[in-house]
């Protein structure tokens, strides 16, 4: 343990001297947690729509007014033909075109049925999908109001209608920030654990100090542990800073136990630090280490469930997702912070992370060669 103490002194001195890395590690959570959730607003607004009204009736005007006053759509043009409206999509000035056919009001009143043409610009798949859903919801609501007006003489209980009401648990107002911020907290630790430690041992190789260390009686596990502990301490400080910013800026306070949350963060950091050190033992220079770490961390982030739910992935992708520690911590972080889950609810995820930490760090110790 005395040898380990000397290694830790050396590592902390090196970290303290590299002020640029220190500034990056502590500025990263501020930038990510303050800017990213504001920029990653999944609530799409200001959707440009071009309308072709071939009916010019009372009902068609009511539908157009309902769309314009919804707060999600901006009517950029009212044209006399579909071809003229389509030109707005081709120029990138409109996202949707809605065509109201002639006889719209007459068919609704007499037959109770009328088709409407909606054309969506699908170049931006997310905006197109959400914009189309918003428009369908507005038209559906418009249909309900028309149906109630046409059947005004019939009591609601005689119509046999089903009144559907739903509640968003753990995020009542369905605000995106409550879903994004806990996941970004995981990304903070991923960046520190994956990138910084991946450059650690290989930096010793480039400078030449690794040869001096190899001729000393330092054991391999002492060397790897000495490289891991300083960044583990920094990672836990960064995680605390991230939780503080989440509370001050967004008012997000974990509903679950802080002890459970920190236990997961501690084990997750050990796993990611071991992964970074493993990359460092295989790499010959910092450029190699950086690109290898970037390759794997991009896979971790994309397969973690941060952007899309892992439940909607194909079977093979779900297997890869289950093999990444990031996916398990993103899931448990949201459950503890938003849902208030106890340790019993997430103990299997904890065992996953413990297994990852043991395998990755054991592999890093085994692969580190003490050669003259």
TrEMBL record:
This protein's record includes keyword Iron-sulfur: no
Signal peptide: none
A GO term from the CC aspect: plasma membrane
Annotated TM spans: 21-40, 180-202, 229-253, 259-279, 291-309, 350-368
Membrane topology: Multi-pass membrane protein
InterPro entries in alphabetical order: ABC-2_transporter_component, ABC2_TM, ABC2_TM_bact-type
Cellular location(s): Cell membrane
A single GO molecular function term of this UniProt record: ABC-type transporter activity
Subcellular location, principal: membrane
PANTHER family registered for this protein in UniProt: MEMBRANE COMPONENT OF ABC TRANSPORTER YHHJ-RELATED, MULTIDRUG ABC TRANSPORTER PERMEASE YBHS-RELATED
Protein name (record): ABC transporter permease
Native source organism of the sequence: Dyadobacter frigoris
